[in-house]
Amino acid sequence: MLKSIKSFESTHLLFTGIAALCFFVFVVDIQFPLGIAGGVPYALLVMATYWNKTKQPTLITGIVSTLLIIIGFFGSESSEYIIMAGANRGMAIVVVWGAVWFVNKYRESIAKIQKDEKRISALFEAATEGMLISDMKGNIVMLNEKIEELFGYSREELIGEEIEKLVPGRFEEKHPEHRHQYYENPEPRPMGQGRDLYGLKKNGEEFPVEISLNHFETAEGKFIISYIIDITQRKKAEQQMRENERRYSMLFQALTDEILVFQLDEQMQPLPFTEVNNVACEILGYEREELLQKTIYDIVNATEKEVDDRIQHILEHREVLWETEHVTSSGKAIPLEIRAKAFIYSGTNTIIVVGRDVRELRKLEKEILNISEQERRRIGQDMHDGLGQMLTGIGLIAQNLAKKLESNELPGAETAQEISDMIRKADDQAHSLARGLVPVDVEANGLGVAIQELVERIQKLYDVKINYNSNNTGSSPFVQDNDTAIHLYRITQEALNNAVKHAGASTITVGLQSSESYLQIRIQDDGEGFDEITDMTKGMGMRLMNFRAQMIGGNLEVNSKEGEGTKIICEILNESSSTAPEN
Predict the structure, then answer these.
(1) Burial of 255 (0-12, 13-18, 19+ CB in 10 A)
(2) What's the confidence (pLDDT) of residue 578?
(3) For a Cys-Cys bond, which of 30, 90, 380, 501 suits 438, CB 3.0-4.6 Å?
(4) Edge to edge, what strands does the sheet with 555-560 contain?
(5) What are the UniProt keywords, alphabetically (predicted)?
């Protein structure tokens, strides 16, 4: 309100002054005709209205001046020179309105410049980064609010001060030299280039900054503009990242398992390893630089198609567990339990493989299996020689008792016969269990017979249809020793038990093929099936089957899909022969 009153008073004073001067010029013109020269004082009065921000005083002054010039023409000029006097008065009016046009255009230009300056000033103040302008002497001439916020100084405290006021004391001595070097050859310097920089706050606290420099030139000389941002949080994040990387590297190298990381190209083909740990280098026998040049194809004891299928399965299931062999630099195959996980890193499919060396575990498992087989054999022999003979003797006594009671027509004869029958069944069951615990005697050529008895026993116990076929015309197929036969029997036994108990199969086919060059056992069912890669390493039964096959130098192949049944093939080849059966 007070500002509006003052503006009104100044405008009123201006109008009063101009009106008085116009009247004075008019009086002079009446007394002493000015002619064309009369336009000059009126034009000066028009230009005096520039100090008012609006066009109104200028236009009014121009109109009043024009009217006074015309009145002066009729009131002072003689009729003798009327034409020349009229022309002079016309020229005076042109001068007046030329002044009006000039003043208005000049006022518009100044207003536009002021508007642009306000816009630039607003942008300067609204910038999210600190902006500071200094002259070629290093004195601060302009700054925005962000600089005040960053350094804690007010604008008045910094204007006119040397820029070294914002530089930590440990750099203050050398900073003028660096500043002069830049001033001698000023070029745009983007952020993030050069050494680490620090700023000094008013309270004496240092903080890391990034500074971008540029220069510009005006009529007042050259100036340097500095763009300053506080990177304290970024430095903390970078420090935390370095610490995390250090911890990751320490944990990565400290793990006792083999770790391999690789990425896939656009065709889903494995690229060379991007990261390996020390254990991987030790197990595979490579230097780190050598191993980083290898691909997964180079170290897996499998065909490229098998590796590609495994990779595809990992991508589908994201995490997979299985057993395989990795080949060392010397060509030796190392059994490993593999856990692989797929993820996206930097927009690329990446797989991390963790392999656990199971050689010692396999030795332990082999020892446990041997002990287990020995214990099975001992229990089976005890059942056959001890319990079985005792049940046989009791059965004979019960049978004789039943006959005597019947011949003497004494009561209890039927009961005694039932007891005799139950003892005989128990005796048969004990012999069957003993046979299952001690299934095979290679010296007695019993593998084929043992598998056939196993099939018959499971058919009776679970009421399931099992088709058994064999091309063996002799009493037993070709095996190397008694342990081999036992492992083959246990694999068959486990496969049949899985088909009956877990797969819910209604029909099972067991095939036995043999010759001098190979031996193959095939078990196929029409049960539920399973995901062969994801599930076959979860159950202990499958893992033991695979382990037994490896122990006897054989190969176990499992083909299964959910809802389509399962086919298990265990095969042993004679190394001296290249003949193999067709699957």
Answers:
(1) middle
(2) 44
(3) 380
(4) 465-470, 507-514, 518-525, 566-573, 555-560
(5) Kinase, Membrane, Transferase, Transmembrane, Transmembrane helix, Two-component regulatory system
Q: Are 562 and 508 in contact (CB under 8 A)?
A: no
Per DSSP, 300 falls in state: B
Residue count (the chain): 583
Nearest to 454 by CA among 515, 510, 499: 510
User: Which residues, at least 6 apart from 435, have a Cβ–Cβ distance to it below 8 Å?
Assistant: 380, 450, 453
Selection from 544, 551, 541, 542 nearest residue 572 by Cα: 551
The span from the CA of 533 to the CA of 538, in Å, is 10
pLDDT at 534 over 60: no
> Does 29 score more than 80 pLDDT?
no
Helices (H), 302-412: 304-317, 359-382, 388-407
Q: What is the pLDDT of residue 66?
A: 73
Q: Residue 475's closest CA among 448, 515, 437, 439? A: 448
d(CA 73, CA 85): 7
Task: Determine the pLDDT at residue 270.
Answer: 93
- Whole-number Cα distances in Å, 358 to 323, 335, 536: 9, 6, 17
- Cα separation, 42 vs 66, in Å, equals 9
Amino acid at 531: D
Residue 16 in tokens: 């009063």
Residues with Cβ within 8 Å of residue 339, at least 6 apart in sequence: 319, 320, 321, 353, 354, 356
Q: List all residues 6 or more positions away from 329 whose beta carbon is below 8 Å from its beta carbon.
A: 284, 285, 286, 290
Which residue is associated with the tokens 């991987």? 280
CA–CA distance, 46 with 226 (Å, rounded to integer) = 45
The rounded distance, in Å, linking the Cα atoms of 502 and 481 is 31
What is the end-to-end Cα distance of the chain in Å, rounded? 103
Q: State pLDDT tens for residues 53-65.
A: 777 777 777 777 7
pLDDT-derived band at 4, boundaries 50, 70, 90: very low
Which pLDDT score, from 0 to 100, does residue 117 have?
A: 72
Predicted model pTM? 0.49
Q: How confident is the model at residue 271, as a pLDDT? A: 94
- H or E element: which one contains 547? helix 540-551
The mean pLDDT value of the chain amounts to: 78
